[in-house]
Design brief:
elongated
Length: about 200
């Protein structure tokens, strides 16, 4: 109506158009994999069955967290911006990181933690009930992983700003950043975002 083209590009497994999100957008780019993550609500999905039969192999073949990273998402965003830079647009982007299990940006992990734990120990800490004991070192390690992934996301957000600048769009674009929830890192006896 006002001459804007609209698009939403998401890396979030929970905000796909098949769940009713992004109605009215001209373009929606959400991850449509042959193997959907186990949160697809389809008890008979191939991904769910494969995960049940081969859980360790599953993590080698498919990303354990099965969302697009900010780096992967930027590729889609940059292609869209290159194609549509001359038009008035409203572009919505849903970055999913930082998000547990905090496996992104590990090349920068030493900046945030000098500790080292097995991935299975991190998974076990997330699976514990509220106020179950977790060692101080493990809690600090998980905070370091979280900070590592924030750093990773921040660097990719910077690449988005650089791209907008390169396309001469940044000075004429309103940018709004918000988060849908916080993350508890054992400050109140738990990890994750279920109660944050």
């Amino acid at each position: 109506e006002q001459g804007y083209i609209t698009a939403h590009i998401t890396g979030d497994v929970f905000t796909k158009s098949k769940y009713g999100f992004w109605q009215g957008f001209m373009t929606v780019k959400d991850r449509l994999d042959f193997f959907e993550y186990i949160h697809s609500y389809d008890k008979l999905s191939l991904k769910r069955m494969f995960h049940g039969v081969f859980p360790k192999l599953d993590k080698l073949i498919f990303r354990a967290d099965d969302e697009k990273s900010s780096e992967e998402l930027n590729r889609d965003v940059f292609r869209w911006l290159d194609k549509n830079k001359e038009q008035k647009f409203f572009l919505s982007i849903t970055y999913y990181d930082p998000h547990d299990p905090y496996t992104l940006g590990t090349e920068n992990k030493k900046r945030f933690t000098d500790k080292d734990f097995k991935f299975s120990e991190v998974e076990a800490a997330f699976a514990k009930k509220r106020n179950a004991p977790v060692s101080k070192d493990l809690a600090e390690y998980i905070k370091g992983l979280y900070d590592t992934e924030i750093f990773y996301w921040d660097s990719n957000l910077g690449k988005l700003f650089d791209k907008l600048d390169k396309l001469s769009l940044k000075d004429n674009t309103i940018i709004v950043i918000f988060a849908d929830h916080g993350t508890e890192l054992y400050e109140h006896g738990d990890f994750g975002n279920g109660l944050s």
